């Protein structure tokens, strides 16, 4: 079975496809992102849409999502963007975890997903 890597760099690939399963690296907002967690989440979700499309899938095929927040008091703010984005009837299994720090101090949310390839 072949392995397809998407947006591969020297440290990691943003997505890896093995068989009919797609693994996305944790996605954060872009450098210089606004501190608003709702806006950062919307940016991250758009990145996820783009990577899933490149892998031949979409958000309705997400099996599992892990969300890291630097402040659990922003859980509701993150969910505003998530609930506006999620496919009704196709929501994945999900966990939200407190992480005191992400890859850069301005990042407040990171999301990683595993999805199926239809």
TrEMBL record:
Q: Name one Pfam family in it.
A: Ribonuc_L-PSP
SUPFAM superfamilies recorded for this chain?
YjgF-like (SSF55298)
Q: Superkingdom of this entry's organism?
A: Bacteria
PANTHER family given for it?
PTHR47328, RUTC FAMILY PROTEIN YOAB (PTHR47328:SF1)
Protein's UniProt name: RidA/YER057c/UK114 family protein
Species annotation: Rhodoferax koreensis
Please name the taxonomic classification of the source. Answer: Bacteria, Pseudomonadati, Pseudomonadota, Betaproteobacteria, Burkholderiales
